[in-house]
Amino acid sequence: MNNNTIELIVQTLEDRKQTIVPTNNSIFRSMDLADQNDKCVNELCGKLANIINAELILVKNKLIPFMQEIANQFQTAIDEAPSVSELTKYQIKTLSIPGLLDELSAQGLLAPKRAPLPIGRNGVLIPTPTEGIRDYFKYEKASIDLYVKQILKNYTDEDLTNIWDKYLSNIGPTNNNIPGIATRLSELYDVICLLYVALDNLRKVKPEGVSAPDDIYFQVTNVFFNEISNYISIALDNVSKFRSLDRVIDRIDDRTFTAYVDPVVYDKFIKELQKPDIILGMIATPTARETAKYLLGSIKKDAEEYLDTWSSKVKQDQQSSLGRAIEKYKLIYKLKLETIYNQYIPFDLKEHITQDLPTILNQYDELIKTIPFNEILDVNYIARLIVAKLLFPDTNFDFFSSCMLSYSKLNDNITPSDAATFASIDFILKFILSQVELVGNDQVANF
Amino acid sequence: MDTIIYNNNEVNRLRLKQIDVVAKRTMGMLLEQADEGVLKSISNKQSFEEYTSYLDKVITTAVRTKLNV
User: Fold this and answer.
1) What is the reported pLDDT for A418?
2) Rounded to whole angstroms, how far apart are CA atoms A13 and A20?
3) Interchain pair B8, A14: CB under 8 A
4) N or C, which end of chain B is more exposed by having fewer CB within 10 Å?
């Protein structure tokens, strides 16, 4: 402070009839008031500097890395937790149309398209193979088997067993799964391809364990094979017809909030309208379920309505998901705090822990109630509070870290060492000024 | 030993100077002690002048706030 400032303060205190006196146990009580350079002053300043330096080392080398580790753990747990948004369940899935369908048609291996027929009165039971099930899903012609292998890549032996159990273990009028295939072709592209291949093998060689007479066995398997072959012809015809009509959506599944789209027409839709949100709006609009509304022209006409529906859905979700997100974050912080306390406190920091876990968790419950919503979502902020106020309240980490943070927020160009310097100055001044107080001149004699 | 009797103005003046000295000297000692990179480097003239000017300003503000002057 320059002399002018000091004189100004002295003058003001004189006017107010006040004097600066040391507090009880003040460091200034041990100093000669007049001597600014004596050994005592130097010793005191040296001690103070030692204490602050030790605090800085603790903060920089141990507490800040520990705080960063905690923030990382919070972030990982939050990323791994389920989303609180309801919007993530709305999906657009592109129909995967196996190349095998076109290849079978190109090679003239399909029955001509006709109306589906019932399976007939006869039935055969074919036991599900307990081993070597994949052998039944090999096509003898390599150029076709190439496409079969592409489908099989996504199927385990267990998946194939399930398909066999469902459609092949009982081929006949008593199997209720079979009539449903014709009405769900686009959902079952892979299955009808696999049934085509398996039946092509089964209709040629009767496996062991089948009790039906040969004539019935070969008649039934051939009928079913022809029916599956017909389904593939119908499926190909549907794809071609729907594409000529520009039918973007094949179907919307209200249970899974999923719209299944034709890849070719969907590309056209994206090029023209550029907004997948229109389709998401359609999923959210129950009145959009008529197939005539799945055509590109119809979607274009009602696009604004679907976009509005989606926008309000997004707004509504943002409002309700904020509350859910806050509850999720609070719970994750508490669960992680327990794990961190029990497992992650470094050995050399344990000596600074002075409270047991139940006390810390109770303090967390109280602390989190006082934190504004936007700050609850800031994992770095919460990690700092937990280290400073709950785990290590007896260190000066709270003072140093909050000071450094304030200085960093004031100016983007401030380095951590600048911020630590400013915080140290604040720390020294806070300490020194706590050693004095102002009293009226008439009370000075008491000090 | 003689006892020096100061008037109130003198007490305030000396105490303010003492606060200033203790703050600056402690900070100086801390800068000497601190590991490299922990605190601001004030090795050149410009950074030293900036630092002393900043320190002076902060001490003045803190003292005036404390004393409500």
Assistant:
1) 87
2) 9
3) yes
4) N
